[in-house]
Specification:
Elements (H helix, E strand, L loop, with lengths): L23 H30 L4 H34 L12 H15 L1
Helix pairs in contact: 1-2
């Protein structure tokens, strides 16, 4: 009995749909925030377990967990700020829409030309 040839399946298939890759500074800030937040969650859990068991480490760990929460909050805000700064510097091209009013100089220039022609 012969073995039938199986179709070869690829291990990794790229999906063209989906989001584009984040810019490098934003991705670095996001990875930093993820690591800081995960360490803070672990530290908070250890502080909770130490306080339940009555360990002397409960108070120092609780104080450092509160400080780490402040740092983790700042790191998450840093992702948002870095993303906004990157968009302003590189990403978004701002153009006025067709309904936008012209500049003040252009409006007064036309009015001034019309007044001089009438005189």
């Amino acid at each position: 009995m012969g073995r039938e040839a199986r179709p070869v399946r690829q291990l990794w298939v790229d999906d063209d749909r989906g989001r584009r890759r984040m810019p490098d500074p934003v991705r670095r800030a996001a990875v930093r925030a993820l690591l800081i937040t995960s360490v803070t969650l672990i530290q908070g859990m250890v502080a909770f377990l130490c306080s339940v068991t009555g360990s002397w480490l409960a108070f120092p760990l609780t104080v450092t967990a509160v400080a780490s929460t402040v740092v983790a909050t700042w790191s998450v805000l840093d992702v948002w700020i870095t993303r906004q700064v990157w968009r302003q510097r590189h990403g978004v091209v701002s153009q006025p829409s067709s309904v936008a009013r012209g500049s003040r100089h252009e409006r007064h220039g036309k009015d001034g030309a019309a007044l001089s022609e009438a005189a």
